[in-house]
Task: structure prediction
Amino acid sequence: MKRRQFIRFGAAVSALSIVKPSQASQIMAKSYEGNAGGAIILSTWNHGLAANEAAWAELQKGGSATDAVEKGVMVTEADLSNRSVGVGGRPDRDGHVTLDACIMSGDSRCGAVAFLEGIAHPISVARAVMDRTQHVMLVGEGAHKFALEQGFATAKMPIPEVKKDYEKWRKENKDLFKKPDINHENHDTIGMIAMDAKGQFAGACTTSGWAYKMHGRVGDSPIIGAGLFVDNEVGAATATGLGEAIVRIAGSHTVVELMRHGYTPLAACKEACMRIVRKHKDLTGLQCGFIAIDKDGNYGAYSIYAGFNFALRHNEGAALIDAQFDRNW
Ligand code: GLY
Result:
């Protein structure tokens, strides 16, 4: 959907919001008017609210967008009650918590780690890959060795309550090749994108991935272009949901490229979701969502099913907003 069509669509959405004023559409309607190029931060899910506050504080004290997104998602990585990100994350089917993360700045610098065990803040290791090596991605043992060499804190995972859940799951799931359930409890991720007051973008994405996944499985979150993509010329996008589906369409890069060609953030997120829908015969449990910001400060979010929300922070305050969705596919 191009910008002009989108404005018409926006008017319809605003009308709907009169009926249900608590819904996101009313707040989303603001995006049609733009945000005057001021600083803005968007994160996936309600854990994004606390993360956004830390990121916003970083911007307020003069930190870069990259500093802000790293500091922001570290809050979620450290939250022991969070079962899909960081230290409190669920393990794979062999009992290992393996963490994936990436970070990208708008000048195309990026770093990532995947299949990383025993390190408290994978996002900071990803940042160190970006800042201190000539590489983009380190995985597994190599990433772990690098993290230790660089002095990053270790953490024992799974934490006891997660281990207990896992042991129960193992007892109840003898067929380890059965497709594990995907739901909001086990498959969230924090993806955060930010634009600072000077129009510089950055993004970060970090997850423990699909709960009870096969050992060695890596999803979209640490893959630049899938879980996250940032380009100062255009804007930024990040993803949450079933990583396999997001990787197949290079989801976040797709969103940014659509914005490059005139799509609004919402329209770009929707087209990425529809591309996933078109490529899958069985959509059972196939939840994916995208959030995006363009260089004018417009933002948008769309998910295949209902239930995905995102946290917004800008000069006027903070909000938790339901993403748009449309079951007519
Ligand atoms: N989107 C997170 C994952 O699939 O691992």
Q: What stands out?
A: Confidence is low (pLDDT under 50) at residues 1-34.
